[in-house]
Amino acid sequence: MANNAPKKRGCLVRLARLMGLLLVGAIAVWLVLPIAARRALLPGTARDVVENAESFEIISVDPDRTHSGNDRFRGFLIRGRTELRDEIAKKRLMGALYTSLGHGMPALCFDPRYAIHAVRAGHSVDLLICFQCGQVEGFVDDKRTDALVGDGAEGEFEAVFQAAGLPAAAK
Q1: For residue 144, what are the β-bridge partners?
Q2: What distances in angstroms separate CA 142 from CA 50, 78, 103, one per listed residue?
Q3: 82 in helix, strand or coil?
Q4: Over pLDDT 90: what percentage of the chain?
Q5: In this predicted structure, what is the pLDDT of residue 34?
Q6: Strand locations in 15-160 (E)
Q7: What residues have CB less than 8 Å from 95, skipping those under 6 apart?
Q8: Over the stretch 15-65, which tens digit does the pLDDT of each residue have?
Q9: Contact status, residue 100 vs residue 152, Cβ threshold 8 Å
Q10: What's the CA gap between 150 and 35, in Å, rounded?
């Protein structure tokens, strides 16, 4: 009886190399995927509302749902909120979010520290963003939609929120 172990090992090595090349290729495609394509991860109505909002609020939320208080946004205690009227800051914020959408590995927790509430033509969009957990919980006219998000936008969010006078994210 011939020993087939070396043959099997060779097949497994070739298969592992092929899988590695496919993974590297997928990562390379994702890295060059234009922001416009990542932007499409937010449903069309939501994009229209946030990009052309009549009202665009940024909200700092406490990630711990057990903290007491009545001023809440989607179940989370509001630490501060303000209307963002600075179009440049809004574009920076949304650009950073679009760049990070689709990245990240979701965790089992969901502890958002940032939120956006936008309204346009009777439609509303609520986004709860947790960079730590890699998730965005969205509501478009109260219909839930979720997405993955990488932590690359967190610095921009923190800068815009602090410039608007909102408290730093609770860590």
Answers
A1: 139
A2: 15, 19, 24
A3: strand
A4: 46
A5: 44
A6: 55-61, 72-73, 76-83, 114-120, 123-130, 135-140, 143-148
A7: 35, 156
A8: 777 776 666 655 544 444 444 444 445 777 888 999 999 999 999 999 988
A9: yes
A10: 14
